[in-house]
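Structure first, sequence second, as always.
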């Protein structure tokens, strides 16, 4: 049995229970550098617990819709922010937590210029660029010396979901 969800355009209000959408859609909070640069201040909650914040680069294989979703993951000890290094949209999949397991997933397609930050403990799909080169800056928790991978939980669905393109 395959289940279906439809991706929708990224909406900061709909995504708010899972994290932050970083964009420049509204006026900057402050103009700096002699009025030549808009500062969009404090747009993501960086949660690192006992670790430290690190910046990494990810280069992911591109995917296409429809997409089979059979697994989601979460990072219980820290947030994870994905900042695309191109203006291309990417697919963001999240699911509410239901007593330690993911509930029904939601799928969003970002708009050019949007980045996202998952809150600590948010169930989410893997990095899913829809266009090459799939290059992202990632800000997340770094902590050496933990047993196993203490900051990664994976959940494999009994029945996969099919993620469809936005309707319309």
């Amino acid at each position: 049995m395959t289940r279906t969800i439809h991706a929708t355009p990224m909406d900061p209000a709909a995504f708010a229970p899972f994290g932050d959408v970083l964009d420049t859609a509204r006026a900057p909070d402050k103009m700096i550098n002699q009025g030549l640069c808009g500062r969009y201040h404090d747009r993501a909650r960086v949660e690192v617990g006992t670790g430290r914040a690190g910046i990494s680069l990810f280069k992911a294989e591109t995917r296409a819709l429809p997409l089979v979703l059979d697994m989601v993951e979460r990072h219980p000890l820290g947030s994870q922010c994905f900042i695309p290094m191109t203006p291309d949209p990417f697919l963001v999949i999240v699911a509410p937590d239901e007593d330690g397991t993911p509930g029904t997933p939601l799928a969003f397609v970002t708009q050019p210029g949007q980045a996202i930050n998952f809150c600590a403990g948010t169930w989410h799909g893997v990095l899913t660029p829809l266009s090459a080169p799939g290059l992202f800056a990632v800000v997340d928790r770094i902590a050496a010396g933990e047993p196993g991978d203490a900051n990664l939980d994976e959940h494999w669905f009994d029945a996969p979901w099919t993620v469809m393109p936005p309707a319309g």
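Margin note: The radius of gyration is 16 Å.
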